[in-house]
Design goal:
The protein contains ten helices and twelve strands. By secondary structure, it is α+β, with helices and mostly antiparallel strands. It folds into two domains: 8-128, Beta-Lactamase, CATH 3.30.450; 136-370, Histidine kinase-like ATPase, C-terminal domain (Heat Shock Protein 90), CATH 3.30.565. The chain has a five-stranded antiparallel β-sheet, with helices on both faces. The protein has a five-stranded mixed β-sheet with strand order 7-9-10-12-11, covered by helices on one side. A two-stranded antiparallel sheet has the order 6-8. A hairpin with a 5-residue loop joins strand 3 (93-98) and strand 4. The protein is elongated, with a radius of gyration of 32 Å.
Length: 373
Amino acid sequence: MDKLPEEDTPSTLRELILETQLELSPSGITVIDVNERIVFWNKRFLEIWGLTADDLRNYERDVVIEKVISRIKNVDEFQKTLSDAYSDQEYQGTDLIELLDGTHLERKTVSLNDKEGRYHGRVWIFTDITQQKSREEEYENYASQLRRMVANRTQELIEAERMAASGTLASEIAHDLKSPLQSIRNAAFMIKRAPERIDVGLEIIEKSVMRSIDMLDEMRSSTRKAEPHLVRTNLNQLIKDALDELPRPDHISVQLEMDAVEDAWIDSTQIRRVLDNVLLNAVEAMPDGGVISVTKHFVEGKFIIQISDTGIGIPAEVLPNLFERKFYTTKPHGLGLGLSYCKRTLESHGGSIMVDSVLGKGTIFTIEIPLID
């Protein structure tokens, strides 16, 4: 094997590679030695601060700070971080710097220690995040506009439907509460006729009361006006959490497939409730067991979530009105407000929900949520 020339030893090559990586870094980097003098910087650091190499050579850090301080808007915060770092050799952290020209910088610092723990100086890394901040402001403006649009439209719908809904709601409540009230009445009659069975009777009464409370809670929460509060959310994790916490018997299995696009601007609480409603419907549609399949993909600016089951299916005559009749139910108990809530919530996010079902084979719910870009 040929011997490497002295000037091309692995150590020398590693140093060259490191210097090249530092020069190619999109962040500005500078190193201060133990005597608080600048011993290294890259080209990007000079560009960010409008400096030249001559401005840095053989100068202490305080001299350089005087050259850039006039460009900084939040000077007190800038100086405080410097003071904290150089008064504590173990200090490391991240803060934000705002320049007078509107530039936003993320500043990171970490101490340089050898294997024995001896302090040799400090490295500072400056990253321009102006575009990121601008995008976040655009997202927030878009979210505010969407909230106002949803609020106005919701109010119009409330006014238009208030009278019609009140009569429908009263009849549905009376109908759905009839069953648990009848159970309570029967249990009370049994206790009077057979006092020795009081434990059985009380258990029936307790379950019937809880069922009634659940119905009323569902009705109240589903008719309450709730505007979405959009925040950056890991949609993949939200779906995983919903599946992990889904109450299901052992004879129902779950299959999950998701792509890598995670960040969505949504109201995580509302979208989680949508997922819970659809997943619970899938569980209830498979009393004899089956498979729930969940897929999530990002296609043409939209998140597409499909939740399918191998259950009993939904009659074709029901499908056209499944989301429109606010108090419609196919369940033996409860008001069945879940799918109406899902529709309103997704529309308030600028999205939609659709259903495709075949009796005896199963149901597929397709949820679409647009990416705010």
